[in-house]
Design goal:
With about 160 residues, the protein is mostly beta strands. It has two domains: about 100 residues, Alpha-Beta Plaits; about 45 residues, SH3 type barrels, CATH 2.30.30.30. Helices cover about 15% and strands about 40% of the residues. It has three helices and 15 strands. The strands form five sheets. A five-stranded antiparallel sheet has the order 14-13-12-11-15, with no helix packed on it. A four-stranded antiparallel sheet has the order 2-5-1-6, covered by helices on one side. β3 and β4 form a beta hairpin.
Length: about 160
């Protein structure tokens, strides 16, 4: 009975690994994101992997050949005897979020760049500044007027509020 496993791929060589795994007879699923941004005044759509450096492969009988395929660093193992199984429900959930073969993540920003904000927690409590952008792990960049100039400070997302 076939099951899904996770392969760890060489950095930035996902396309090569997916191709080589396909040639070796494995069904490969590499979910990709749809990222839209503006660069030098032009709209660009990038399609990076949802999980950089990882892909899902369907294991039917043998998994050893997948482990040694070009572009593959190894499989995520459960002990030393078999690859860890990824539940079918996880793959189905990821595929259900696809639109046109790509996954669009919802925008998380509730603040707009340049919007006036006030710090509500921490050592900068009460200081007003300008929202400068979103960072990973629910962090934000804020420009605060400190020490005679504007200083870029990274804060927790829930430590600021919009100034009305």
């Amino acid at each position: 009975m076939a099951y899904w496993a996770c392969a760890r791929l060489e950095p930035h060589r996902e396309r090569l690994a997916v191709h080589c795994l396909g040639v070796a007879g494995y069904e490969v699923y590499l979910p990709r994101l749809r990222e839209r941004r503006i660069s030098h005044g032009r709209k660009i759509e990038a399609r990076p992997p949802l999980f950089p450096g990882y892909a899902f492969i369907a294991i039917e009988l043998q998994w050893h050949a997948a482990r040694w395929t070009t572009g593959v660093l190894g499989l995520i193992m459960c002990g030393i005897h078999e690859p860890a199984r990824v539940p079918d429900s996880v793959i189905a959930e990821i595929r259900a979020r696809e639109r046109g073969g790509l996954i669009e993540l919802p925008r998380r920003e509730k603040f707009r760049t340049g919007e006036a904000v006030r710090v509500t927690q921490g050592p900068f409590r009460g200081i007003a500044g300008l929202y400068a952008g979103q960072r990973p792990h629910d962090r934000v960049l804020v420009l605060l007027t400190l020490l005679g100039g504007q200083q870029r400070v990274e804060l927790a997302k829930d430590a600021i509020e919009v100034v009305c």
